[in-house]
Design a protein that fits this description.
183 residues, mainly beta, twelve-stranded antiparallel beta sheet, 2 helices, 12% helix, 49% strand
Length: 183
């Protein structure tokens, strides 16, 4: 059941990202989109217009740049369970990432990770949250800031993920940091 919820969350994030890609020149200023850093966006889903999401696997760091890639902060309600997370796809559509956590997003929050996935289409590599991952220091997301002034969210995460590239699944430590802005 936990895996099914994870798949549903990843699919939801993928649909949102795929339907709102930044392939076209789109003016995402707050005045034009009607989004504000307060509660005026009732969906709770926001595209970052600037900032970065860095993901480190082993000795390699991958960067999503919100100015050119699609990076979003998502709030979802699945089977009456609330989740929040970050999802991203690069402009070339060769790499995507999603991570989710149960509950509500807020500043100064450290929470368990419910699901995560990192995909590479060029290499066929795929990392997913280890099935036996327990909420502990190895699987957490920390939001230092959330919806404060022009900051959409700022924080870090760490997770134990398993490679699913056709070879023997080996756990990998995946860490990340994000500093995303809405204006």
């Amino acid at each position: 059941m936990r895996f099914l919820k994870f798949i549903l969350i990843v699919l939801l994030f993928s649909v949102v990202i795929a339907s709102c890609q930044k392939d076209q020149a789109v003016d995402l200023t707050l005045a034009k989109t009607g989004l504000k850093a307060d509660t005026s966006n009732n969906s709770g889903n926001f595209f970052a217009v600037s900032g970065t999401l860095n993901i480190t696997v082993g000795d390699t760091t991958y960067t999503f740049d919100a100015a050119k890639d699609s990076v979003a902060f998502i709030n979802a309600n699945i089977d009456s369970n609330k989740y929040f997370g970050i999802t991203a796809i690069n402009k070339a559509h060769t790499m995507s990432f999603g991570i989710s956590s149960p509950g509500f997003a807020s500043p100064d929050l450290t929470n368990a990770i419910a699901g995560g996935q990192l995909l590479f289409s060029k290499h066929g590599a795929q990392f997913t949250l280890a099935k036996d991952a327990e909420p502990n220091d190895s699987n957490k997301i920390t939001l230092e800031k959330y919806m404060q002034d022009s900051i959409l969210t700022k924080g870090t995460f760490s997770a134990v993920m398993t490679s699913q590239d056709g070879k023997q699944a080996a756990p990998a430590s995946v860490t990340g940091e994000f500093n995303l802005r809405i204006k």
